[in-house]
Specification:
By secondary structure, the protein is α/β, with parallel strands linked by helices. Helices cover 47% and strands 19% of the residues. Helix 4 packs across helix 12.
């Protein structure tokens, strides 16, 4: 009789052990079952904030729960990233961060309060920004890249170039540009692209590499002369402006890609559901056009693609931080 009870007991025990896993999968398939919060580690009103709000609105319609947006700027994204890393349950707080915010901080700061690989779950890439190299038309006579380099080499003083702040992509790409062309540059950081543009207009700067959206109006007005874009193709609204590769500088080809991540421990079924919904939204022609209007290029989210992007590009951005001496201890 004792032997006859062993099999039922084992089956009961196996069922009890499997129950939490079954419930976890069920909860993941029900995701989201409460409001979801996007954290944007930038001030309100910028392209990242605008695009995240557009994405949140579409996700709310598709998934049936509120998707809100909260701005937590500061320390090149560290404040927002740390907030999401410590948020539970996983999957209900999402960070929308650029490559410089994700990959540069470990090289810039002696210590940061999170580990990108350990504390986050990648959801996918959503969009990328092209940067534009430009000069102020009244202060610099050059109208193409070759003319600018020749002019810059003839100057006796360092060339002041502006960026959105220390260790941002405009800073790192500007430093790389100066080094690759044998120019003596003087980095001048600002609190955003708008301040950089105003400094260019005043004649305080002679060069910048910053996002296309922030400079396009000044290019159209003739205040800035465009030299090259940093993407792999020409930008649709500036088709006459060559790429860095076309002007002989393929090493300066770099886009400012943006990824969405949750805190660690988000169930795989929930990751797949969220990433799939975002993929469907970013595949729609109307939404893609809205992304381009905001100055970005839409990407199609995939968790594994974001993992590979982080692994592949981390060494390159680390080298650029070292080249620019962009340490903030």
């Amino acid at each position: 009789m004792a032997h006859d009870l062993i099999a039922p007991r084992r089956a009961l025990l196996g069922g009890l052990l499997a129950a939490p896993a079954v419930l976890s999968v069920a909860r993941a398939q029900d995701y989201p079952d409460r409001p979801v919060r996007f954290v944007v580690p930038n001030p309100p009103g910028g392209a990242s904030d605008i695009l995240t709000r557009l994405l949140a609105r579409e996700l709310q319609e598709r998934l049936g729960q509120p998707f809100t947006v909260e701005n937590r700027s500061g320390s090149n994204g560290i404040i927002g990233l740390d907030n999401v890393a410590k948020s539970q349950p996983a999957g209900y707080s999402l960070i929308v961060a650029t490559v410089s915010q994700l990959l540069c901080n470990p090289f810039v700061y002696r210590s940061i309060p999170y580990d990108l690989d350990r504390d986050f779950t990648p959801i996918g890439l959503v969009w990328e920004y092209y940067n534009l190299a430009a000069v102020p038309s009244r202060a610099v006579p050059a109208r193409n890249m070759a003319e600018f380099i020749a002019w810059a080499k003839a100057q006796r003083e360092p060339i002041p170039y502006g960026s959105n702040g220390i260790a941002t992509s405009p800073h790192l790409l500007g430093a790389l540009f100066m080094e690759q062309n044998g120019l003596d540059g003087l980095h001048v950081p600002f609190r955003g692209a708008a301040e950089t543009a105003q400094a260019m207009l005043r004649g305080d700067l002679r060069f910048t590499i910053t996002d296309v959206a922030s400079l396009s109006a000044y290019v159209r007005s003739g205040d800035f002369a465009p030299l090259a874009v940093t993407g792999g193709t020409r930008w649709p609204t500036l088709p006459e402006v060559p790429t860095m590769a076309e002007v002989g500088m393929p090493q300066l080809e770099a886009t400012v890609w943006t990824g969405v991540l949750a805190s660690a421990g988000m169930p795989q079924a929930a990751v797949t559901k969220l990433s799939g919904a975002m993929h469907a939204i970013l595949s729609e022609p109307d939404f893609q056009q809205r992304v381009r209007t905001a100055g970005a290029n839409p990407l199609l989210p995939d968790p594994e693609a974001l993992k590979r992007k982080i692994a592949d590009e981390r060494p390159r951005w680390g080298r650029m931080v070292q080249l620019a001496n962009a340490r903030l201890d």
